[in-house]
Design brief:
The protein is of the alpha/beta class. It has two domains: 4-280, Alpha-Beta Barrel (TIM Barrel); 286-348, no CATH class. The chain contains 13 helices and eight strands. Strands 1-2-3-4-5-6-7-8 form an eight-stranded parallel barrel. Helix 4 links the parallel strand 4 (111-115) and strand 5 (145-149). Helix 1 packs parallel to helix 8 (257-273) and helix 8 crosses helix 9.
Length: 353
Amino acid sequence: MIPELGLIEGYFGRPWQHEDRKRVLARLRELDFSFFHYAPKADPFLRRRWREPHPEQRLAELAELSRVCASLGLRFGIGLSPYELYRDFTGAARKEFIAKVRALDEIGIDDLAILFDDTRGDVPDLAAREAEIVHTALANTRATRILMCPTYYSDDRMLDVVFGKRPPGYLEELGQRLDPRVAVYWTGEEICAREFSAGHLARVAESLRRKPTLWDNYPVNDGPRMSRFLHLRAFTGRPAAIGPLVAAHAINPALQPHLSLIPAASLVASYRDGATYCYMAAFRQAARELAGPRLAEMLEEDLHALQDRGFFDPGEDRERLRRRYAAVEHPVAAEVVRWLDGADTVDGWVEDA
């Protein structure tokens, strides 16, 4: 069984260019993905400045994305992170939140995701507060599907270290309080899960009282360290057996939109091929189809340099690789060159919003 597949643009760092995003959407539909959620961390009007309207140009681009998705048969969603709204969801704050939800409706959304990730969460009644916000969105949106991402969206204890110790029984209380219509994003046993096991997913489903919607943090490469590597290899650790155990499976892509399509195609193969799936064969096929035979060979030949050694390779090797890919006219090659030039490193990127 292949679950509903999607892509959530939920990374830190430089957002994709609008035209690249549209081209990727068309490819995703060809790969049988069925939804796209726009939620880049660099969009301040969906995070710290969520109370403010988007500038006209960005608003127009989002409306165009909605139309493009509709024409392709993709569900279009937006992820709203109402920054620390749970600390005071009364009076003016509640009204501003409802106004924002209705403004997103005007863009034309099928899905609305309320995201509480990457904020402090060490308050005792966190689950109740978040459920109230989600239910307010549910009551005031025209979107036909509502999702939420918990503050503690993984078993990974790093979340407790960074954002404060999670309240006892948080996940179970959230599952009990949330309307059954609300889907819940989950990243797995770790923030960047190496694999998803049936036992783990069954336990999470029991806690949430619903199958989780996977927020799969591969091939994302958005951290100060991760952005120095290109995540190109095909998916592993996502066996076809988990298909019936999840509500949907969304991937968080890399900072390189066209390169992200290579592992995206392999996820489809992993579910489709089941026990016969071979991850390197899936990589080769996806790379050939998306980049062409010669460029696919180059990517495989340089896989260790790009994904394993990354930016920590000696400078002379980067220069050799740059010359090699600069000689090829293709969006995939251009993304490798840009990465080699250091344009995609997260700590070197400054938000211009």
